[in-house]
Amino acid sequence: MRKLLLTILFFISISVFSQITKTDTWDEAQKIALSENKDILIEFTGSSWCKPCIRMEKEVLSDPKFEEFAKDKFVLFVLDLQMPIKVDSENYQTFERYKKIHNVSFYPTYILTDSDGKEKIRLKGYYSLNNFIKKLSK
């Protein structure tokens, strides 16, 4: 019984510590990126209504292979436009502000920046796991 419990705890700790750092504020993403010497991967998504966004989350971003690849390289800054849209909501205002700053009109869009926000790579739409990792490795 003790061995089973230790095995379960081991796998729980691996899953907790192997995850990419995610945040929904730029200031926090930048602070973490600077302190941990990482880039910032900005995700513009509609997780409840955008079919390619939903596929990316399910098939790519939550895959352990992606998390292992990304955890030491990126902080994920998630901008998730929620439905129904409420134009006076903080969610909508934040999404629109960063959408304008980064000139985004297609979802999902992924923008890799340095910790200062300088764009390095821009990816639009759905990518397979291996192709997404390959594109972000350039």
TrEMBL record:
Domain Thioredoxin stretches: 8-138
Signal peptide interval: 1-18
Taxonomic superkingdom: Bacteria
Keyword Signal: yes
Keyword vocabulary terms for this entry: Signal
PROSITE patterns registered for this protein in UniProt: THIOREDOXIN_2
Gene3D superfamilies: Glutaredoxin (3.40.30.10)
Record InterPro entries: AGR/TXD, Thioredoxin-like_sf, Thioredoxin_domain
Pfam families documented for this protein: Thioredoxin_7
PANTHER family xrefs: ANTERIOR GRADIENT PROTEIN-RELATED, THIOREDOXIN DOMAIN-CONTAINING PROTEIN
Protein name per Swiss-Prot or TrEMBL: Thioredoxin-like protein
Organism per entry: Chryseobacterium geocarposphaerae
